[in-house]
Amino acid sequence: MPAISAPHPFAKLGVLALVAVSACGTSDQGYPTAGASTSPSGGASSATGGAPVGASGGATGSNGGASTSPTPDASTNQIPGAIVGRGSDSPIEVSAQLIKSNCSPAAATADGALMAFNVRGSNGLFDAYLGNTRCEGQPLLPPYDGHRGAGDMTPDGRYVLLVIARGWDKATSGAEPGKGSSNSIDILDRNTGVVSTLVPSYCNSCQRGAIWPRLSPDGAKMAWTEMVQTPVEVSPIGRFTLHVSTLSPDRTSVASDVVWQPRSSGSVLVEAYGWLSGTTDIIFASNDGVTNCNLTSCLQLFRLSEQLPDLPATLLTPPVNGSNAYHEFSHFRGDGWVYTSIGRDGLGADLWRMKPDGSNQERVTFFGGAYSLAVMGFSQVTGFPEPTFSIVGGMATVPGGFIAGVIHDQNATSIDAWRIDIVAR
What we know:
The protein is an all-beta fold. It has strands at 11-12, 15-16, 44-47, 92-101, 104-108, 115-120, 126-131, 137-139, 148-153, 159-165, 183-189, 194-199, 209-215, 221-229, 239-247, 254-260, 270-275, 281-286, 300-305, 314-315, 327-332, 338-345, 348-354, 362-363, 370-372, 377-379, 390-398, 401-407, 415-424. Strand 15 and strand 16 (254-260) form a beta hairpin.
């Protein structure tokens, strides 16, 4: 069956289209309580001249840099009105500074000197860029007539993971980064300039699409998600599986691969976020086995050994303030916390952090404002702009915090890069 060209029904560039919180039940698959941790062949390589590459998990904003979000002051690059500050009910000190519109960060080097990010061009296609943490840079590869962008990068900046839209629908919305129709997974060796295909794109005997490739800290392995059935085949979101691939020593092919199948039948979304710092466990989001909820609040965080045993994964995300909520976009700084976007507010999903067992949940950002009984609505929090629909999406980890992509509409046509600095009080 050909790959779909229609947009993912509720994944918008790796983001769920709706994020209003609703009541959500627990798993019916007997998931263990949080706290316990329990193949494709690549090798097709090509030189950089013309080899297309693509993006994972979170693409970028509006065409040609246009944005419906606030415009920063040219002299300070900040939105007028106290953009730097802290959240009033946050146990940490947080500063938020607008960096640039139409920039979706993907990954940064350990020293923060280089950042891979994705930009939507005036032709409507996404492309992968490399530059600094102010979203100043150049495309990684020559022009291509389909979607492509960066998914991850090794801490030294040598290897960049990319996703390429290669099918007949390569220029359509269904093939955008994070949607994955007919996407291959490729790796660019910046020392040699060679792009190698790790996971081929759609064919009769291989996967229909790929999203969310993430490298292990040493670059030896890759977690990624395979679209095994399209939304046309299994409504409403298709069906996805989780992979961990061991790469060849020269990082040009997949040496071995293990697959984890969701426990429940039917339509299941899986998004891989990579390795929890200091462990061999994978963190991923899924609606697998989560019941009594709508499509958005079904998405929860899970933890599973990189060996992907044929066992239920550990469900991490307990209720937030008494009710379940949608979770997506997990990131790690090596500080003992898991950072993730939680759809707690009707205006979108802000960044929170929690311990690896799901405990000690603390809110970090306030782009959606804080609920005020005085006004019976969401009010602006010092240090953040006026509340608007916002989802804190893909991020690059940098010293002191993150460069985060903040999405301003349900179709993710407008994404701005913000620097989020975090200091424990």
